[in-house]
Write a structure and sequence with these properties.
Elements (H helix, E strand, L loop, with lengths): L1 H7 L1 H67 L2 H8 L5 H17 L3 E8 L4 E4 L9 H8 L6 E9 L7 E9 L12 E7 H9 L8 E5 L5 E4 L13 H8 L4 E8 L2 E10 L4 E8 H4 L3 H39 L3 H5 L8 H35 L4 H8 L6 E9 L11 H19 L5 E6 L2 E8 L6 H18 L3 E9 L2 H13 L1 H7 L4 E3 L2 H4 L11 H12 L3 H14 L5 H19 L6 H14 L6 H41 L7 H8 L3 H12 L3 H19 L4 H7 L5 H12 L3 H15 L1
Parallel strand pairs: 14-15
Antiparallel strand pairs: 1-2, 1-5, 3-4, 4-5, 6-7, 6-10, 8-9, 9-10, 11-13, 11-14, 12-13
Helix pairs in contact: 1-2, 2-6, 2-9, 13-14, 18-19, 18-20, 18-22, 19-22, 21-22, 22-24
């Protein structure tokens, strides 16, 4: 039976395969994640162990440095050694005594390969291994060229004393006693340490997982390596070495591909010797039983997969039963039992339910269309017959008319185009009908973005429940359709004429939206709805004059504030009064500003575009934003006309200051008189263009000239202060030090020193 269902029924087969693939994917994912976590944890532990081992190794550098300093101090405390460094002659007897002393000291420190004494005055070199001066020629030349510190380090290869064909790898420590003492500046103590000795010191901490352990200096040159052939190799170009040298951390570990193999790199930096201890371990060597782990994980995964096959069969059989029972009740299945072709159960169910849904939608659309036609007949010139049919349904005896007005979805004046608005209106009407149908409501789209609702009620005033229901409808439409609607509620009506009047009241509420904003719910008040003219409504002409003045002076902050206050003064007017005042305001701006603009044509087009849009603004806030945008654009046009003149004035002031800076009476008042403008206006204009005050600019010019005089003349500071127009020398000192962070005398001394060093 299971085999027959797998081959014949597509849904059964898909369910079985889905269960199998799901369980297989989960098993594979869990196995891989566990294996990766185990390997990552192992690499982390090895990295920490290697880091701890290298930190112990880094102590070797401190020991080596201390021992080298001890040997140096011991040699410098010996009279024969000091005499050999200072001897200008070439006495063989003294050299023999020095040689014996060196051999005795070397025997005390078995880690030392050889010790050498170089006297630059008589050009002699003694070495405990018998290495000659000619063999050490390159080292001695480098010693003569360096005297910048007491301690120097050279990894190098030296020739054996008895054979020039053999060489040894050593780390040479050069001590220059003359750096701290009056000993001959060309004298030096050379201490050679075999790299094999250092490798033995650090190799004792090496673990089995480490493939290579070595030390590099701060330039990336290998000082000692577990592979002796790599001594003095430059590895600074290796990416992992560059990462280590550029890292600010004193120790750490990371994974990196080296020679095509994933490896764990651990490092510890030694501050005493500028050495970096590095260990490299191949990733595959960290897990010694890696293959066994992989095999075990694979066997467990296969076993779990076999169990999942049986589990998938059981789950598929039980999950498929509801679909099978549903198919048995359909007439199409028995007809197919006689043949052997495959069956797609979902296709059968989809076809059946599509036919049923289409029939239901057809019936629903016909009922909705009939209801809409009924509402339109009631509200658009019908007769009392339609109202009596509505009242005969027994839902009354009173009826409440409400109207939904679609707000602009994009926030622009006028909302969407006509086609989109018609579609949105029909969608909102259908959604409202579905939500309010249990309450006996009738809904219809009556055009121009308005949806009418007729709701039966039990009393002659709108109940709280009906208001809450419309608020919920408003929220649900916005949540599901992302359409904002403004709701207007009329009065309760018991007659046909009263119902039509109630709908007119509901639509009159939309005028309140202009003042209070979109997406709100308004109750109808017949007194407000008639919009009787107010006798005390006055146009705020004083506020208009302040706005025009702010535009001319380019006072943008004040401009926006004044427009907000102008809008506030017309907020209490009726809708028609507000629109009249807005038109009057635009006319006043055009009359006062258009003739003063440099670009009259552009400003005229701004006014023309605004007047075309003015009737499309849905709220007073939209109107205020558009007025601010228009005023700021007019402000920019006005600013363009004065920008050239302002730049010329500032350029003249700067040239005048640079020419007459030496005048002690130089001031803002004087400069303002030169350009025939007021002092305060010139000060604001100069600061706006130069981003610093006139006095700060004058002081900067004077201090710049003073610095030139201090550098090029021997005049006194008082004289230079007077030459640049500052008669108070103390004030000049204060300004100079505040501006340049040094005093005039310090500046002159510093400049003289720099000039002398440059020569």
């Amino acid at each position: 039976m299971i085999r027959q269902r797998l081959f014949r029924y597509a849904v059964y087969r898909n369910m079985f395969l889905s269960f199998v693939l799901l369980t297989a994917a989960m098993i594979a994912l869990v196995t891989v994640v566990l294996f990766m976590m185990f390997s990552w944890s192992t690499a982390k532990e090895v990295g920490k162990i290697s880091e701890s081992m290298l930190k112990q190794n880094s102590a070797v550098s401190s020991v080596i440095r201390d021992q080298v300093y001890n040997v140096g101090n011991l040699l410098l405390s010996d009279k024969e050694i000091v005499g050999a460094l200072l001897d200008k002659g070439n006495d063989p007897v003294k050299q023999y005594g020095v040689f014996g002393t060196l051999r005795r000291i070397q025997s005390t420190y078995p880690f030392i390969h050889s010790i050498g004494i170089y006297n630059g005055s008589n050009n002699t070199y003694l070495n405990t291994k018998g290495i000659t001066k000619e063999q050490e020629k390159e080292l001695l030349e480098e010693i003569n060229s360096k005297n910048t510190s007491y301690f120097h380090l050279f990894p190098r290869r030296i020739s054996a004393a008895n054979s020039s064909n053999q060489s040894e790898d050593v780390i040479t420590f050069v001590l220059l006693p003359s750096y701290y003492s009056p000993v001959n500046s060309k004298g030096a103590i050379v201490i050679n340490m075999s790299t094999s000795t250092i490798q033995k010191l650090i190799g004792g901490y090496r673990n089995e997982a480490t493939d290579s352990l070595y030390v590099i200096d701060d330039s990336g040159t290998i000082i000692t390596h577990s592979d002796h052939a790599r001594f003095m190799e430059d590895v600074s170009q290796e990416s992992y070495v560059q990462s280590i040298l550029s890292s600010a951390a004193e120790s750490g570990y990371f994974t990196r591909s080296i020679d095509g193999r994933k490896s764990v790199v651990t490092y510890v930096k030694s501050k005493e010797m500028n050495w970096t201890f590095i260990s490299v371990s191949q990733y595959q060597n960290l897990l010694f039983n890696m293959q066994a782990l992989r095999t075990t994980a694979l066997i467990l995964a296969l076993a779990c997969f076999a169990v999942s096959i049986f589990l998938s069969i059981w789950l598929t059989h039980h999950a498929y039963n509801p679909i099978r029972h549903l198919l048995d009740k359909m007439s199409a299945i028995p007809k197919m039992k006689g043949n052997r072709r495959q069956i797609n159960e979902f296709a059968i169910l989809d076809t059946t339910y599509a036919e049923m849904t289409e029939r239901m939608r057809s019936m629903e659309s016909e009922a909705f269309a009939a209801r809409q036609a009924h509402v339109l007949q009631l509200l658009n010139g019908g007769d009392e017959t339609a109202f009596r049919r509505l009242a005969g349904e027994g839902r009354g005896p009173y009826f409440l008319a409400a109207a939904l007005l679609l707000d602009s979805q994009d926030g622009s004046p006028g909302g969407e185009d006509e086609g989109l608005q018609s579609y949105s209106c029909a969608t909102v009407a259908r959604a409202a009908q579905q939500m309010l149908e249990p309450e006996g409501a009738s809904v219809a789209a009556v055009g121009e973005g308005i949806v009418a609702i007729i709701l039966p009620i039990k009393q002659n005033r709108p109940p709280i429940g009906a208001v809450g229901m419309l608020e919920e409808l408003q929220s649900e439409i916005f949540r599901t359709l992302r359409v904002s609607v403004t709701v207007g509620i009329g009065t309760a009506a018991q007659t046909y004429d009263g119902l039509r009047e109630s709908f007119d009241y509901a639509q009159s509420c939309f005028r309140q939206r202009f003042f209070e904003g979109k997406g709100r719910l308004f109750h109808c008040d017949p007194v407000i709805a008639t919009e009787k003219k107010r006798s005390d409504a006055q146009y705020p002409d004083k506020r208009e004059k302040r706005i025009i003045e702010a535009i001319k002076l380019q006072q943008r902050d004040k401009l926006e504030k004044e427009i907000d206050l102008w809008i506030k003064e017309i907020r209490d007017c009726t809708y028609h009064e507000a629109m009249f005042f807005i038109n009057q305001f635009i006319g006043g701006l055009y009359k006062q500003l258009n003739v003063h603009m440099v670009k009259n044509r552009e400003s005229a087009e701004l006014f023309l575009r605004f007047t075309r849009r003015i009737t499309r603004f849905q709220t007073l806030m939209e109107t205020a934003d558009a007025l601010k945008e228009l005023a700021l654009r007019l402000c920019s046009l006005s600013e363009e006309s004065g920008a050239v003149r302002h730049a010329e004035v500032v350029d003249f002031i700067q040239m005048y200051v640079r020419k007459h800076y030496a005048r002690p009476d130089m001031s803002l008042e004087q400069v303002a008189g030169e350009v025939k403008l007021s002092r305060s206006y010139v000060g604001k204009l100069f600061k706006a263009h130069c981003e610093l005050s006139f006095n700060d600019y004058l002081n900067a010019v004077r201090l710049e000239k003073a610095r030139e005089l201090l550098a090029s003349t021997e005049d006194s500071v008082q004289s230079i202060s007077e030459q640049v127009g500052i008669l108070n020398t103390t004030y000049f000192y204060t300004l100079f030090k505040k501006h340049y962070q040094i005093s005039p005398a310090q500046f002159r001394s510093q400049h003289a020193l720099e000039k002398k060093m440059a020569q």
